[in-house]
Specification:
Blueprint lengths: L13 E7 L3 H18 L3 E7 L5 H11 L4 E9 L6 H17 L4 E9 L8 E5 L1
Parallel strand pairs: 1-2, 1-3, 3-4
Antiparallel strand pairs: 4-5
Length: 130
């Protein structure tokens, strides 16, 4: 008699939240709101990973998604036009990189990425992709 066992791997009960350090006062509010809302929806533990800036988020998201340890990878960052660099390039690179992570099918990936055209903290556009 041949027996078969169906060893279904349990889905992860952790969520990764990647946070950029630039404009931390604003991004911390995203993190705080996310933690409050996710606690209402599920009992998953949340690991907060801090990276230097939004530009580093996609690589970190890719590395975390590949581990298979997370049910979802969420990222929060803010890119501003403060005259230091080409903010359009950075914002597009971050969103494009995160969309590539989503396309690999490695788990859910979400983006909380705001942009505004001046250093005044009034967000003109925020993208939420979950």
């Amino acid at each position: 008699m041949v027996s078969t066992s169906n060893t279904k791997q349990d889905s992860p009960k952790r969520i990764a939240f990647i946070q950029a350090s630039w404009h931390r006062d604003i991004v911390d509010q995203c993190k705080k709101s996310f933690l409050i809302e996710i606690a209402k929806l599920c009992d998953h533990a949340v690991d907060v990973i801090v990276v230097p800036g939004a530009f580093e988020i996609p690589l970190q998201a890719k590395l975390l998604a590949k581990t298979g340890q997370y049910a979802a990878v969420i990222a929060a960052g803010l890119v501003t036009d403060s005259g230091i660099y080409r903010h359009e390039f950075v914002a597009q690179s971050v969103v494009s990189g995160l969309m590539q992570v989503r396309a690999t099918g490695n788990r859910g990936a979400g983006i909380l990425c705001g942009t505004h055209s001046s250093p005044i903290p009034q967000l003109q556009r925020t993208q939420y992709l979950l």
